[in-house]
Design goal:
Blueprint (H helix, E strand, L loop, with lengths): L1 H25 L25 H23 L5 E2 L5 E2 L1 H22 L5 H17 L1
Antiparallel strand pairs: 1-2
Amino acid sequence: MTTTRWTTIYAGLAALMATILALLVWAVPVSGDGVKDWTGQLVPGFWMAWSFPVALFFWIIASLLMVMTLLAIRFPETPRVGILRIETTRGDRLFISLLGSAFINLGWLFFLGTPLWGALIVSLVYAVAVFRWV
């Protein structure tokens, strides 16, 4: 019975996040020739430049927070000590990963400029290392 309840919770949250992502993709503006402008403003004239990449970034952060919350509820953990010699939980390691990835991307922009695909790969490798060893 407990497994069925958790399966329902997982399916419900996955459906919610998929619906939100579909709405974001639907909201991408279309240029005059019918091509989607992926970097155009989702809400023209709004005080903040909400483009699809910005909205996708926040969607990913919200998804990560939901997954981490469910993991913390379903599989409680005790803090562990890694190579930094401090106690960290999954949430701490997520925060360290996100903060480090921000600096990796800023450094990449400063030294190498765009595109940021290389920085994304470095950030993902960094995040895996943080979750494995920190």
